Amino acid sequence: EAQVTQNPRYLITVTGKKLTVTCSQNMNHEYMSWYRQDPGLGLRQIYYSMNVEVTDKGDVPEGYKVSRKEKRNFPLILESPSPNQTSLYFCASSLLFTLDTGELFFGEGSRLTVL
Amino acid sequence: AQSVTQPDIHITVSEGASLELRCNYSYGATPYLFWYVQSPGQGLQLLLKYFSGDTLVQGIKGFEAEFKRSQSSFNLRKPSVHWSDAAEYFCAVVPDTGRRALTFGSGTRLQVQP
Questions:
Q1: Residues in chain B closer than 8 A to A103 (CB atoms)
Q2: pLDDT at B12 over 90
Q3: How far is A45 from chain B, CA to nearest CA, in Å?
Q4: What's the CA gap between A110 and A100, in Å, rounded?
Q5: How many CA atoms lie within 13 A of B107 on its CB side?
Q6: What is the DSSP secondary structure assignment for residue A80, as one 8-state letter?
Q7: Contact B63/B47 with Cβ under 8 angstroms?
Q8: Confidence band (pLDDT; 50, 70, 90) for B101?
Q9: Which of B42, B51, B94 sits opposite A108 (nearest CB)?
Q10: Of A64, B91, B97, B104, which is least packed with CB atoms within 10 Å of its CB?
Q11: Cβ separation A102–B46 shorter than 8 A
């Protein structure tokens, strides 16, 4: 089954404790991206990757890191989480980095709470 | 600044009634335009998209949207709403800025009354 898998789905952590949210897709997609969703703000892009070893900042990259060492995986790293990073996070992928197909495939989301 | 606006935060309709969700964008050229739906506890799913050509596009689940260049709008419509359509709906664009990203509106939450 074609899917984007995120882990963990739910996480409560404390300020400053490093964490990683994993994302994996099994569709051989070139493009992967991380978004955060906050009430009233819709989805805002954190980082994206057009292919292996090619990443770039989105609209709200501060406090986050990413890597793309393999085509299927695109982990999101919070080196020192802060309460303002409490949010619902989505990983998404698309067949072509040009987004010409238009369709992003989304994971089910990871709800992160930073105390 | 370039943006996508969904002016309605929350809409309530009765089951069987028609629906129109508004979306306006402010980009110079014609961007790629999309509507996504997010059911409770789920990720987003593509309903339909517009790139060029016929300005009325059909999507899944009986939805359609019309691109109107003069109004910079891409409104989503459905003739008869079902209770299962209750969800949050997001309009999105790929702007002509060179950055590879979908920019989303803030969303419209649809509630369906029996």
A1: 46, 49
A2: yes
A3: 7
A4: 27
A5: 20
A6: S
A7: yes
A8: confident
A9: B42
A10: B97
A11: yes
Angle at A12 between CA A107 and CA A39, to 5 degrees: 60
Instruction: Decide which of B57 and B43 is more confident.
Output: B57
Q: Rg of chain A over CA atoms, in angstroms?
A: 13
Q: What is the pLDDT of residues A32-87, one digit of tens each?
A: 999 999 988 889 999 999 899 999 999 899 999 999 999 999 999 999 999 999 99
Longest dimension (CA), chain B: 45
- The Cα-based distances of A14 to A9, A18, A20, A21, A86 in angstroms read 17, 9, 13, 15, 11
Give the minimum alpha-carbon distance from B48 to chain A in angstroms, rounded to a whole number: 9
Q: Would the pLDDT of B2 be above 90?
A: no
Site from A104, A105, A110, A111 to mutate, B interface, most B CB atoms within 10 angstroms: A104
